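I am writing to request your help with a piece of structural work I have in hand. The matter concerns a single protein, recorded as an amino acid sequence and a row of backbone structure tokens. Could you please explain, in whatever detail you think fit, how the structure tokens follow from the sequence? Thank you for your consideration; the sequence and its tokens are set out here:
>
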Amino acid sequence: MHKKESKHEHNAAHTQHAPQAGHQLEERLIDNLVQLQRVHTDLADKFDKLSKQIADLVGLFEISARAFAKQVNIPGAEKDREFLDKIDKLLEQNKTIAKGLTLVEEKMRERLYGTPTTPTRALGSRPQYAPDARPLPRI
């Protein structure tokens, strides 16, 4: 019977040790939860500060944009605008000249080869030639 007593003593010691381990585990869980709540609180505070700083930065950008928009006399801006206007005029003139040359080419082709007049092609499209027709030289 000696063996049974030792088993019984071992079970009694184990049941006494189990509540202590459970209690320690509960305390550690509580401590960890409290620490986690502190971290969450700190994180929320930092997000609030970050939100305020971003709002201030956006306000600064808005003020800068208004000041920049009000400032009309930027050195060199007027020259740039004149230059861009001249380029726009040149582009329009180039389109007009290209349309005129296309019409002249169609009329010449009609006179030389007797092909019927087709509606004006879009710029950049290649004409369809008759098998015996030669294209005009490109310059």
